[in-house]
Amino acid sequence: MVTPxxxxxxxxxxxxxxxxxxxxxxxxxxxxxxxAQLKNSGVKFVDVLLPESEKFKNLFNDDAEYFYQTFVEGIxxxxxxxxxxxxEKKKPSKLEVRFYSDSPxxxxxxxxxxxxxxxxxxxxxxxxxxxxxxxxxxLAARIRKRFSGTGxxxxxxxxxxxLKRKMNALYSVGKGSANPPLLIELHYKPAKAKSKIALVGxxxxxxxxxYSIKPTDxxxxxxxxxxxxAAVVGILDAAAKLKMPxxxxxxxxxxxxxxxxxxxxxxxxxxxxxxxxxxVKNTDAEGRIILADALEYASAKKPEKIIDFATxxxxxxxxxxxxxxxxxxxxxxxxxxxxxxxxxTFELVWxxxxxxxxSKLLESDIADISNLGPRWGGAITAAKFLEFFxxxxxxxxxxxxxxxAMKNKLSNYTEKWNTGYGVRLTVEYLKSL
Length: 433
Fold this sequence. Notes:
The chain is an alpha/beta fold.
């Protein structure tokens, strides 16, 4: 909680001698240590005297508001935990954090940070929720509840509507589960919109791999295979609260990729809503199959840009590690903006090749495209597969978040729970428009 305050109970001094080595994540990361350090200490109030932004204007491109925002982001990100299923819960001590500054930019930065991290919390709660409770239907229910009474409209297409619209790709992946597939649409439309963007998020609430079954170790974290969908929800949530002047569509194909006698199989040919056909070579490359129908659906909204978020490939993690997402786009402006904003938010992004020559690796003798290329360049061929289903008149970017969406050691606030990657990054990108 952030309030005005009086005398401090605890004083933290952050020292660094090498200003030239600071990153935009330095204060966010340092502040995120405080909640853990004070846990069970009995301290109820922390007062933070904010430094002058002038000293760091080069690092933050003279954006004083964002400089101050990183402090409250750090405190709140460091205070996150997911312990709802612990049988012995310790009642968390109430910690009030009070920031002091003479700068008008500080008040706005703190206010924006609180609103933004509330959306990140919701995203993280979804990604950390076990698949036994977060089915496609429960995901839709939580989204409806979250946006009830807000300016964001929620529409859910059930199995019958999916089949009516010939979304056989989405249906095929989900038909092996007792919980039928859904397509969830979110729509945020401000009074005056400067642009119109569609965000698409992979929503596999659990991925066993299907008949191309994963080993047990590969399944444990697959509750988080809907991190792309959760990111889209968080972005729409933040955009509405911050009253951003951008019209947004969120499109989420939600399924469980499980096995029964009705499951789709390697060797199947699946038709999509676009009329294009897919040869299924591996049922564990299911995310791109459901996204085929979702991207066609998003294209029909006639946006200026489509950006998708997906925990799509292990190959991207092999290429970039756990710390950075892979970015695929032919639009240099999108590529450059996301890369620079990734450095600012410390949700890191790195562009990978997106050349048309890679499309040859997905050619099929019996369908329009194969869902799997050869071993090499797997993240790139997956991205080229997705591009095949996007309207050519729309600027497109695919962001493979398979690494940074999962807990990792990049910073103090990403170590313990799945991270909610993509919300802070994309909100800053939308601001840049």
